[in-house]
Amino acid sequence: MLMDRFDNTLNLLMFLVFTGFAVASFVIAAMVREDAYRAADKQTKKFWLILLGVNLALNLFLPGLLFLLIAGLIAAIVFMVDVRPALRQVMGGGGGGRRGGGSSSDGPYGPYNGGR
């Protein structure tokens, strides 16, 4: 009985994580301009929307097919880890996680010049 409850909780948690990640990656892919994909030398926007849309549909309508869900999760991870940073850099949003593209030695009031 305890294992059944654990299995149900684990399945629900996996469903929520996979579906949330699929929604986030699909929305991000949809918000980026088509020309940014070409400038970043990545697959087209249409390709990523179809791939991530199929992933999202599988998550919502066929949550029992774990193999397909994992394949879709891998596609979403590739988008978020490889394609999204390249798109951000092309669109001017790169900078190592810092807004504004400042140097790593910049402080809150401007560049740090070593006390000179």
UniProtKB/TrEMBL annotation:
Region named Disordered: 92-116
Domain of life: Bacteria
UniProt biased composition (Low complexity): 105-116
UniProt keyword list: Membrane, Transmembrane, Transmembrane helix
Compositionally biased region (Gly residues): 92-104
Pfam families tied to this protein: DUF2516
Transmembrane regions listed in the UniProt entry: 12-32, 48-81
Key word Aminoacyl-tRNA synthetase present: no
Name of this chain's protein: Membrane protein
